[in-house]
Write a structure and sequence with these properties.
heterodimer, A: 301 residues, mainly alpha, 76% helix, B: 316 residues, ABC transporter involved in vitamin B12 uptake, BtuC, two-stranded antiparallel ribbon, 14 helices
């Protein structure tokens, strides 16, 4: 009798743990996806790997922290990503734009340098120590005692990330800007010949990508706290999400992010130390079986 | 004329390297910085074998640098205290890892190749970071030292005599540089140049492009892991920060700064970069910002590198 009871409890524990980690993986995966979508937008249209994406994420978080006392939680949540997007647009205008059409090596080095500068700059302005980020108390409490991990904030984050992703796909599919971005991804030269100002298009597209990074930043700091290196741990998984999902495909990137998030969540139940490694194993597997990625187009790179 | 110029350049480089211990203190520097420059120069030249001469952009060379370094450090600490054995193990580990990862990525090109090398490079960073019991995690592998070389008839004390260690580093550097120069002059090296200039044409000529890129990648990673072993020996210490992605960026910027299209370019880049870093980090805490700014300025204003500019000036 006791044995049965023990196994019952054990199973319930285990399935609860599993559920917890799957859910956790989904949240983390949603972050990866949000970041990877921004990276992917910029990469597809401009051929630039934005290494400073994690830096922009950190700026988003820190700006929200600074704005919090003045605008409150909701105000900071809305305003901060837009400010980050403006910074991104300015950076594109002044620096990144000069390197279009040159060897990708140069834009990579440029964003690399920017990542250094942003990390050091945030440390200089806001300090190296971790800062706490206040979220509304009603969001911080668990919703049910059985599923202790389902705090309101996590559900809220999931909802918001979902809304952002839906919003992005609506923009891309139903607005003129989105149409042009998608067309430019396929053939920028033709789009340019048809009379679209490609400079402005790339500029706005860069801003859109950075906006997503800023949004991810504001959401992430509520969960992870604030440090200058907060973006560092998110950028590599975002690269992997893009590679797994396939270059040139935004739905692929989204799926890639969620997949590696859940995979590393599930792995952390059984082999906690391998939760990072599993992402790389997935990437290697995809590269062996299908080098262009799950949804990637043939011959794009 | 250009032939003599080239000879003169080679002689100048070797003369400067061999006499460095005598003039470096005079210009207010120290010999350890000289060893540093030569080690990084070897890493950047190894990267340039792939970047400048095969036209393939790798941003993950720090991983193989780190494998060489960790292989050396852990061999000397746990297995057997011998400098040559440590180096051998480090180089083998780094090269084998590169040979295994190579087939996964050689089919990719351009940014995609760069992104995959970055991501695969980080694997080794995480392993070094997570595998606490063997690698010491964040604290790195410490509490070991390089061992004086025993040549049978004489002993060279590379441990306590920084000058002897410098010459040891230069000797290894010389062998590697000669090997790379030899490879680049061989038909194999010419084939790599052909791939860099026009991959499609090379393919039409019947050159197995992917296999050549794989070979170039493995050779490049072999030399970078040699540099890694020297790096570990130089510091008597290795930690995960030395193998992170920013280290790969350092190698690339050195190659670009000196001139990707020249054999000695990375050496010059390494010297400028490290002297500047040494100077800045001793004057301000925010040296990272300056290094970042340095990256941005080089990309915007010196994309051809020092030697590229000189060469352009010389040929009107």
């Amino acid at each position: 009798m006791r044995g049965v009871e023990f196994w019952g409890t054990f199973n319930r524990r285990m399935s609860q743990l599993l559920l917890f980690n799957v859910f956790n993986g989904l949240i983390i995966g949603a972050f990866y996806a949000l970041m990877a979508l921004g990276l992917s937008l910029i990469l597809n249209l401009s051929g630039v790997i934005n290494f400073a994406h994690g830096g922009f994420l950190a700026i988003g978080g820190y700006l929200a922290y600074t704005l919090l006392p003045y605008l409150g939680f909701w105000g900071a949540l809305i305003v901060s990503p837009f400010l980050v997007a403006f910074i991104g647009i300015a950076v594109e205008r002044v620096l990144v734009r000069r390197l279009y059409g040159r060897d990708p090596l140069y834009s990579l080095l440029l964003t690399f340098g920017l990542a250094f500068m942003i990390e050091d700059g945030t440390r200089f302005i806001w300090g190296a120590q971790s800062l706490p980020y206040q979220i509304p108390t009603w969001l911080a409490v668990p919703i049910s005692a059985d599923y202790f991990f389902l705090t309101g904030y996590r559900l809220f984050m999931m909802t918001l990330v979902g809304a952002a992703v839906i919003g992005l796909f609506l923009i891309l599919n139903y607005t003129r800007l989105g149409l042009r971005i998608r067309a430019g991804t396929l053939d920028l030269e033709t789009v340019s010949v048809l009379g679209v100002n490609v400079r402005v298009l790339r500029n706005l597209n860069f801003g859109l990508g950075i906006y997503l990074a800023g949004l991810a930043g504001v959401l992430a700091v509520g969960m992870l706290g604030l440090q200058p290196t907060v973006g560092d741990n998110l950028i590599m998984p975002s690269f992997i999400a893009i590679i797994v999902g396939g270059l040139g495909s935004l739905p692929g990137t989204l799926l890639g992010g969620l997949l590696i998030g859940v995979a590393s969540g599930v792995t952390s139940v059984y082999f906690p130390s391998a939760s990072e490694a599993v992402m790389y194993v997935m990437m290697a597997a995809v590269l062996i079986v299908r080098p262009r990625g799950l949804f990637g187009e043939e011959g794009r790179f | 004329m250009p032939r003599i110029d080239k000879r003169a350049g080679d002689i100048l480089v070797w003369a400067l390297l061999l006499t460095a211990p005598f003039w470096m203190p005079a210009v207010g520097s120290y010999i350890e910085l000289g060893s540093h420059v030569v080690v990084y120069a070897l890493a950047a030249m190894a990267l340039n074998f792939l970047l400048g001469y095969t036209g393939v952009l790798s941003f993950g060379h720090a991983a193989y640098f780190g494998l060489g370094a960790y292989g050396t450090a852990m061999t000397i600490k746990y297995l057997y205290p011998s400098t040559p054995l440590g180096m051998l193990v480090g180089v083998v580990v780094g090269t084998v890892a590169a040979a295994i990862i190579g087939p996964l990525i050689v089919r990719l090109r351009g940014v995609y190749f760069a992104m995959c090398t970055i991501a695969f490079g980080q694997v080794f960073y995480y392993i070094a970071f997570q595998w606490r019991s063997a690698t010491g995690g964040d604290d790195g592998v410490s509490a070991w030292t390089r061992v004086p070389l025993d040549l049978g008839f004489t002993k060279i004390d590379i441990l306590n005599n920084p000058q002897a260690f410098y010459y040891f580093v230069v000797a290894v550097f010389a062998v590697c540089a000669a090997a790379m120069a030899f490879l680049l002059r061989s038909p194999f090296g010419r084939t790599l140049l052909a791939i860099r200039e026009n991959e499609r044409r090379a393919r039409f000529l019947g050159i197995p492009v992917d296999r050549h890129i794989w070979m170039s990648w493995v050779i490049s990673c072999f030399f970078v892991s040699v540099a890694g072993t020297l790096f570990a020996l130089m510091n008597n210490f290795i930690d995960p920060r030395a193998i992170r992605w920013d280290q790969s960026g350092n190698f690339v910027i050195m190659a670009v700064l000196g001139g990707m299209r020249s054999f000695w370019g990375p050496l010059i880049g390494s010297a400028i970069f490290l002297v500047l870093q040494d100077y800045i980090s001793s004057h301000t805490e925010n040296w990272m910002s300056f290094i970042g700014l340095f990256f941005v300025l080089i990309v915007l204003f010196f994309p051809r590198g020092v030697l590229g500019i000189i060469r352009r000036k010389a040929t009107p």
